[in-house]
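Reopening this ticket.

The earlier resolution said the output was attached, but the attachment link was broken on my side. Pasting everything inline this time so it's all in one place.
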Amino acid sequence: MGASDSTPTYVEERSGGFYLRGTRVSLDSVVHQFQQGASAESILRAFPLIGSLERVYGAIAYYLAHKIDVDAYLERQREISEAQRSSQRIPDDLRRRLERARQESHRRS
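Inline output:
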């Protein structure tokens, strides 16, 4: 299935990731919303650059048809993100300012 037949291709692989064809919207974003129970309509509202419900459903159909591969990709992305997050230490002064801001926010609410 692809560009050689009359079936539209909704997802493309580029720069090491999966994207909705012709947009900067990652398949990760759509899949995450879908896994959280979001409707196609709410996904389109969250990512209007997708352009149409047809394209949202096309992305979901792509995910379901390639679930093993996409889930493996998403897990690799999660691991990379976790590794990056754990290797980045927040400077002590920034940590103190964030903690003060958090405390002030709790006092106001």
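Reporter confirms the inline version is readable. The chain has a mean pLDDT of 88. Residues 11-108 form a domain with the Arc Repressor Mutant, subunit A fold (CATH 1.10.10.10).
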